[in-house]
Amino acid sequence: MTTLTRGRFVVIQVLVLALFCSLLGRLWYLQVVGGDSYRAQAQSNAVRDVIVQPQRGLIVDSTGRSLVANRLAWVVTVDRSRLAVLPTAEQSATLRQLGRTLGLPYGQVLAQTKLCGEKGAPDAGLCWNGSPYEAVPVAADVDEDVALAIAERPEDFPAVEVQQQNVRSYPTPYGANAAHLLGYVTSVTEDEYAAAKQDDDTTLNAASQVGRSGLERSYDRFLRGLPGSTGKSVDSSGRVIGSAGATPARPGDTLVTSIDAKVQAKAEDELRAAIMTARQTHDDVTGEDYKATSGAMVVMEAKTGRLVASASYPTYDPEVWVGGISSRQLKSLYSKDAGEPLLSRATQGQLAPGSTFKPVTAAGALDSGYPTSTELDCSSSFQVGNRIFKNYESASYGPIDFASALQLSCDTFFYRIAYAEWLRQGGDDPDRKDVLVENAKRFGFGRQTGIDLPGEASGRIADRAWRRQYWKDNKDYYCKIGRSSSANDYLHLFAREFCVDGYLYRAGDAVNFAIGQGDTLVTPMQLAVVYAALSNGGALFEPRVAKAVVDPYGDVVKRIPPHRAGSLPISDRHRDYIDDALLGTAKTGTMAWKMQGFPLEEVQVRAKTGTAEVQGKQTTGWVATYDENYVVIMMMEQGGTGSGSSGDAVRHMWEALYGIDGDRVDPAASLLPAGQTPSSLPVFGRDGTVEAPR
Asked: How far is Cα 502 from Cα 520, in angstroms, rounded to an integer?
């Protein structure tokens, strides 16, 4: 062997030795230095966390009665990992057999087993956006017989499991529905889940239920709880082969409300009964029975703004959302033919208030310089330009003061005030502001009350600025209608006039505004807030439904006190004057025929009735009442006069609140505990028991 060859051989040996030493060093590093880290990573590759959904928190009334709870329901699931190991034909046969048993089409069952984003997956809502290692629910709230039939035949349903899971339950204590107050939950959307991950919100996961309306939405972050997890051991193919450690889920908090279930049920019953009666009552104006399409009743604590009851008709069964809602059911909830049951008339119904608005006009006039001794002619009609504005039913009472005008609900009295103020403010000058209009805004009309429920409507105060903007937005439309025909019917005459000068705030607009007609719109909740302020000394409260949040162990997490938003823009002297005048409405005024025999000396109910005319529809009836403790407001759309449509129901509510039988007051017979709303919270035991407030 030559010297050159021997040298090359030595170099090769050195290189091999160096590589071998490097390999030994790397192995030593992996096993000794980095061993713990890699073992942890290997373990995490073999274990997948499956989310355990928390039990959603309860919603209870002021005495602890459950308004929303949870119940166990049968849920049919498909284990994707077990399904995947079956032959393709057997997978298809299993899902087809499952569909036939559940009464679902094969395509729907297949779609519900697909992961969102997976090839062939349907739109969000049908695809599965939970963990791929978790059994996928394909049918919830299944009949027990069907669930047990599947469970007892595992050979026919490989990879199919039957489980019991918590779903929302609505106990309806004493028959209280309260759907518009309570709301409902549905599955989280992809966008919501993505936002939660970005914000590190651990209370929300891909399979969570989220509040969509009512209290379920407003207090969702308290009610939803904190998810737990269960470890699933998987093999290299992703198949589940066992269980690992678990972290328990934390149940959601309980929401205590100011609602009383007995009063709520009574309000719903009285509202429905009044509407059914109206539908059998003849309307002499239209020559047919009243349609009585919808209505609302609100019972509020005058001193705090807390709701004791809030009823809306038509309503719906919140159970319809449990386990998923069908397109047919959803369409019915939004249907105009069905009366749009999802719409809460108490907070979202916007209607002309009619004469229940007159105390607001009176307050504006009195604080603008009119003395309480003012007397104006309550004539049968009042002429503005070439238009005659009639008093209701053309009644005529001669010269009367503010108190009598409120009690008798005299339109022409308030027409005269509004017309004089319109002239004083510059007539139809679009740049002027009107004292009566600005006063109504300070009462809180034209904006949301701030109630702790989503979707509240703001109503409308149609001032000069609004009228100009409305004209700009709709001018082209009405001009086109006006040019389309030379007919002199109401529609075409109005269209031609609006096209030319619809931006003007005319005298007719001013006098209509004074009696709650024209373009003015309010909600029953707004009216309740204002009448509560007349009762409590002038405090305008933001209405509240919730009183407190209590954790699963019975400890108070958060108290929700009343919130004062402002004060009535009226002197105490003038407020007291209006308060006394409205007491006369129940004794000798427009509500007196419904209050005969009622113990008004003991329970001093103030009242104002209203009948609002609506173009092309029957009249909307209103009754607004209050005493030192409560406010009771009722509205019925297309139901006739205020006292005629709602007077009996409102009286019955007052009798229920105080335990009145004839002319006798018996607090023990009241629907409320001890005849009053509880000031303290229910008592929550650590064992889950709930007792009435002590």
From this structure: 16
Are 344 and 180 within 8 A, CB to CB? yes
Question: pLDDT-derived band of residue 237, with 50, 70 and 90 as boundaries?
Answer: very low
Give domain status of residue 31, yes or no.
no
φ/ψ of residue 537, rounded to 5: 105, 5
- The single-letter DSSP state of residue 503 is T
Domain that includes residue 669, residue range? 261-352+522-675
The verdict on 381 and 234 lying in the same domain is: no
Largest CA distance in the chain: 142
Q: Which residue, among 531, 202, 207, has the nearest Cα to 353 in the 3D structure?
A: 531
C-alpha 131/C-alpha 56 separation (Å) is 20
Q: How far is CA 275 from CA 162, 350, 621, 635, 648, in A?
A: 45, 18, 11, 10, 11
Residue 234 has pLDDT above 60, yes or no: no
Question: With helix as H, strand as E and coil as C, how does 97-125 read?
Answer: HHHHHHCCCHHHHHHHCCECCCCCCCCCC
What residues contact 112, with CB distance under 8 A and at least 6 apart?
Answer: 126, 127, 128, 136, 137, 138
Look at the chain and report how many structural domains it folds into.
3
- Do the Cβ atoms of 140 and 324 come closer than 8 Å? yes
Stretch 147-168: mean pLDDT: 87
Check: CB of residue 135 under 8 Å from CB of residue 127: no
Q: Can you name the residues that pair with 612 across neighbouring β-strands?
A: 620
Question: Cα angle at 601 between 597 and 602, to 5 degrees?
Answer: 100
In Å, how far are 96, 274, 284, 287 from 281, measured between CA atoms? 55, 11, 10, 11
- Kindly report the CATH number assigned to the domain that includes residue 464: 3.40.710
Rg (CA), the chain: 34
pLDDT digits (tens, 9 = 90+) for 282-296: 999 899 999 999 999
Instruction: Tell me if residue 233 falls in helix, strand or coil.
Output: strand
Quick check: bond before 173 cis, omega within 30? no
Specify whether 535 is located in the same domain as 626: yes
693: left (phi over 0), alpha (psi -120 to 50) or beta: beta
Tokens of 303: 């001193």
Give the strands of the sheet with 240-247, arranged side by side: 47-52, 228-234, 240-247
CATH of the domain at 226: 3.90.1310.10
Boundary-marking domain end, from 230, 257, 284: 257
For residue 44, the model assigns a pLDDT of 47
136 falls within a domain: yes
Mean pLDDT of the chain: 89
Residues 196 and 72 in one domain: yes
Q: Would residue 44 count as lying in a domain?
A: no
pLDDT in tens, 405-445: 999 999 999 999 999 999 998 887 777 889 999 999 999 99
